[in-house]
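Schema walk-through. Below, the input block comes first and the output block second. Nothing else is stored per chain. Lengths vary across the set, and this one has 181 residues.
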Amino acid sequence: MLRKILIVILLGASNASYSDYIGGISYLNLVGENRTEGQDVRGRIDAISASLNYEFTVSERLSIVPGVQIGTGLKVGNANHGSANFDVTLDQLLALTLRGEYDFKNRAYMFLEPTYVQVEYQASIFIPDEGREFTSKTIDETTLSISAGFGYDFSKKVSSEVMLGVFDKIKLFQLGIRYKF
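--- output ---
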């Protein structure tokens, strides 16, 4: 269902030209910390994503930029809870974004980005004390997130940006390159 919504948004975003489309590729670092049953649970996943956005100019300095983002894990992440160790694999990340972007007019910009995120990951647990591994479990979650960041336009077409965000109890760091078509 989410995939169909993403396709409709992209196809309907522009009926005149492709000049306001923005494509991007990003590195994501997801770090989670939680306290359960009196013990800390910490984990980290590295991922890569691609995005497609469309820029609607509201004023000379303000733009609204809806978009979609699709990503996957780069390697097996890890987490631990007491003596138990988890291997975590991010299979898929799908996101609908709605960014408000303010241009400083010196090639720098800042943005605020609420996002609807759907993640699918697999977790397998190993308990060294018992010397056994449990089977993997696929987990599919949807949540809302909020992110903020800064970008810099190297040219009229290419920019770079850094973003920090949070969803559930997971902190997100994202570093990316964008290209305006």
